[in-house]
Amino acid sequence: MKNTLLVVLLFLAELAFSQTGSVNGTINDGEYNDVLPFANVVIKGTQTGTTSDFEGKYTLDLKPGTYTLVFSFVGYQTKEITDIIISENESTAVNVTLQASAGQLDEVIITTTARKNTEAAVLSLQKNSVNLMDGLSLESIKKTGASSVANAVKNVPGVSIQGGKFVYVRGLGDRYTKSILNGVDVPGLDPDRNTLQLDIFPTQILENILVVKSATADQPADFTGGVVDIVTKDIPSREEYSLSIGASYNSDFHFQDNYLVSDKSNTDFLGFDDGLRDNPLAPNQDVPLPQQNGEVAQVITQRFNPTLAAQREQSLMDFKLSATAGNQYEIGDNKLGFLASLSYKNETKYYDEYVDGQIYRKDETDKSNFELLADRTQNGEVGNNNVLISGLAGLSFKTEKSKYRFNVLHIQNGESEASIFRQSNFIISSNNVKKDNLIYTERAITNGLLSGKHSLGSENDWTIEWKLSPTIARIDDKDFRVTPFRVSTNSQTGEEIFTIEPSESGLPSRFYRNLEEINLAGKLDIEKKHTLFGYDAKVKFGGAYTYKQRDFEVVKFAIPFLNFPSASLGGNPNLILDDENVYDPTTNSGFYIRDDSNDSDSYDSEVSVAAGYLSEEFKVTSWFNAILGVRFEKFDLIYTGENQNGTELVDATILDKSDFFPSANLIFDLDEDGNEKIRASYARTTARPSFKEASLAEIFDPISSTTFIGNIDLQPSYINNFDLRFEKYGENSDFFALSGFYKSFNDPIELSFIRRAYGQYTPLNLGDANVFGGEIEVRKNLGFIDGLQDLSFNANFSLIESQQDYSDDEREGRLDNLREGETLDDTRQLQGQSPYLINIGLNYNNDDSGWQGGLFYNTQGKTLQIVGAGDVADVFTLPFHNVKLNLSKTFGENKNSTISLQFENLLDDDVESVYQSFGGEDQIYSKWNPGQEISLSYSIRF
Fold it and tell me: E strands of 213-358, at which residues?
């Protein structure tokens, strides 16, 4: 018994003393603007230590306590970091940058504290970058309380988000901004956009977000505003698990009894439809008219879901949850790690006063009338439910000089929307219409990444990195249902009468849109360190290949009727396909399905981009670094489709372009540590038409009642980009930057309404354009004021001016509709370009107490949303002033639990777009109130 007790006591003692924490991080090379492999890391006063691997990363397991770490490498200044606190089962990050000793005979030792070093390390990637870059670390994202990449990235200088999804860099639209995932291309999930929507990426899967604003030869050439690189989490250095749960309440949206919904499938809560909304007809099935085969027309009509009306129920709160797990194992001298992450988000919105798609026109008969005339007003109610599920799983295997990584990411998104609108028409037609709209969109994207990085050579002076990334994206608009009734008033009783009149209100209709895109991307980067002009230098060369194939198909049906009194429905859409109202061949009356699909609604396109590049990074002097390079890209677009006139193209080569894209980045260090820099850059880039734009497609949108007309003759735009920036890095993450930029566009592409073709728009190569502006960013810890060391302030401001030449058609239309005393400028601003952007934040962070908080303000200037056509005025998005407050408290024995409280839109501002015309009052194009939201969440790490 005594022996057993002794064994138990020894085991417990061993268990108690074996509890450890760890310190880990990355050692950067201040000389090369790169990582520093095989550097020494030692606990001061001991023989305990390790070395960084070929990626500059290190990990050291230690017992709880306070330590001083010494970082050293031959030919570099030694750096000591004091006051490093190691806690039980916790991992402490300490990143350092070692500077070359510049030939000093005596050893130089730089000493700083852990807190100062850790905070400064947030900017190390930006500081050591060879191109002009802004970034957000995961910690920075947490401070703002952002739940998605879209919400987070708008805190980057010069970055704004349109529609809550699409990123604009320096006021340039999604055409000029490229979104990539882990450094490689991925397809978008919107047939009307050229880039990937960012609201589908939850912050739980992020390592960081990088926004590159100046090009280098290894970057893709098809960007102008910037490249947004979404970097997912890497394998953790030790075992870690986390769980988070949260809920949000908006008094305008939630627990509303009048919330609008459509019929639901059993799997809507999982982000996909279970088949309820599938097209009940087989592909290519013949749909006869009643006059052709009344019995078959009746049977086909009865197959369709009869629900056409928006329904009402009580809305629920938003809620979300996420979980992550990761670990790393020693396998001999190698390391094997895994990471898994799963997140779920369910959001509900309800707008009881939603104005959208109104049309106001200039008075064409009286040029002295400055006021805009209403052509169409439209307002109503909208209910929206958005479910987003993301899963990330990854494996990593690391040897002494190689690292292999395999990641799989799947994102599933289901969005349902129901709305009831009242529409009044005055000029082109004169009537009143009530519309029920039922919409469901299912989106899915699956991305795989297999990558490798290898350090070669006896002096580890060769680095080879390769990536292979296949992606499948699918978007299904399933059974869009639009049911219009013309509304008139009984002159005797005053009661409303609802009728279906094809020439006035249009017919009830159903749409099915399917987009599937396959994306295969690969890239190879080879780097060789060498000596040039007596200084360290680096040559980099490689290639990339991307293949994209997209199928887009639209199937649409109308629901006309024969010999039926539509007024008897009483404006109830659900009665249209009621059994007793479906077409009956015995009476030759009732509603039936008519196939209105057109070949011009569908297309099949392929794009391939083959690229090769060469660049050299070298020092001209000890303080002047240059990165010169050239990139070659061959772009091919192949198209299959036809227009309504019967013109057909099959596997036709629409674009075949081979171009060189030179770039130059110059970095001037103004002090020995590189804490003050001047960056200058030039690059030639391009913006290419999307699949849909360079096509014969003619696609009708039933919700906005507009038609897109493709332009088969569309050509790429070419842009010359110039940047100049001063940077100053200080302690405690202090940072100051002042930037200027200029961009000249040759043949920019813009969507333009077709004059006299109401509701039709097309992409055009317009005349030349110029964009120029400046940015200023300040991050300052307020510790220079006694008692405010836990407070920090950050602000960035962008001022942007653009000048776009008119097309001949646009100029003629504007001249014909000038008001008395109005003159036409030579240029106008670019579509989607914001004249200014402002971000301001005040942060509080006390590690000892665990309290953290922040107050943030974000806005952008009046932005040209829709370019007017002829008598239709320009539409501008007005500034939205968003103020939010975040509070969080970390607690628990190991401070592994956090509770957070967030307040959104404290000013209760509206989202509003207006028509603006010379001398006249603004008229609303769209307007809604996003309400004020309160969010509460709890997370735990173990």
Answer: 226-232, 240-250, 259-261, 311-313, 318-331, 334-355
Decide: helix, strand or coil at residue 16.
helix
Q: How far from 132 is each of 263, 727, 826, CA to CA, in Å?
A: 50, 10, 32
Q: What is the DSSP string of 683-737?
A: EEEEE---TTTSS--EEEETTTTEEEE--TT---EEEEEEEEEEEEE-STT-EEE
**772 burial level (CB within 10 Å; 0-12, 13-18, 19+):** middle
According to DSSP, residue 783 is labeled G
Q: With beta carbons less than 8 A apart as the criterion, state whether 748 and 716 touch.
A: no
Q: Tokens 């665990």 identify what position?
A: 850
Give pLDDT, residue 136: 63
Q: Which residues of 250-268 are buried (b: 16+ CB within 10 A; e: fewer)?
A: bebbbebeebbbbbbbeeb
Widest pairwise Cα distance in the chain: 108
Contact by Cβ (8 Å): 661, 634: no
- CB burial of residue 665 (10 Å; 0-12, 13-18, 19+): buried
Of 358-367, 396-405, 711-720, 748-757, the one with minimum mean pLDDT is 748-757
Question: DSSP class of residue 205?
Answer: G
Between 136 and 47, name the one with better pLDDT: 47
Q: Name the CA radius of gyration of the chain, rounded.
A: 31
Closest C-alpha among 804, 291, 380, 798 to residue 562: 291
* 938, 244 Cβ separation under 8 angstroms: yes
Q: What is the pLDDT of residues 238-267, one digit of tens each?
A: 788 889 999 999 999 999 999 999 999 999
Say which DSSP state 46 is in.
S
Residues in contact with 781: Cβ distance below 8 Å, sequence separation at least 6, in sequence order: 119, 731, 732, 733, 734, 789, 791, 792
648 touches 642 (CB < 8 A)? yes
How many C-beta atoms surround the C-beta of residue 749 within 10 A?
Answer: 26
In 457-573, DSSP assigns E strands to 462-489, 496-499, 509-532, 535-558, 561-562
What is the Cα–Cα distance from 78 to 110, expressed in whole angstroms?
A: 6
- Measured CA to CA, the distance from residue 773 to residue 85 in angstroms comes to 45
Tokens of 702: 């039933």
Between 166-175, 411-420, 518-527, 627-636, the lowest mean confidence (pLDDT) is in 166-175
The residue whose two tokens read 């009194």 is 565
User: For residue 508, is pLDDT > 60?
Assistant: yes
Q: Is the pLDDT of residue 690 over 90?
A: no
Residue whose pair of structure tokens reads 């193209």 in the numeric block: 649
Backbone φ and ψ for 306, nearest 5 degrees, come out as -80, -10
Q: Which helix (DSSP H) or strand (DSSP E) does residue 12 occupy?
A: helix 2-18
Nearest to 931 by CA among 914, 907, 913: 907
Q: How many residues does the chain have?
A: 942
Task: Measure Cα distances from 383 to 279, 319, 353, 354, 702 in Å.
Answer: 24, 17, 11, 10, 18
For 673, list phi and psi in degrees, rounded to 5: -85, -5
Cβ atoms of residues 858 and 838 within 8 Å: yes
Return the structure tokens found at 364: 């064409």
841-879 pLDDT per residue, tens? 898 988 888 898 989 998 989 988 888 877 888 999 999
Q: What are phi and psi of 176, to 5 degrees?
A: -105, 10
Nearest to 711 by CA among 722, 731, 697, 701: 697
Residue 588 zone, left/alpha/beta (φ > 0; ψ -120 to 50; rest): left
User: Which residues touch 501 (CB under 8 Å, ≥6 apart)?
Assistant: 486, 566
Report, in this order, helix, strand and coil percent for the chain, each rounded to 5. Answer: 10, 55, 35
Amino acid type, 172:
L
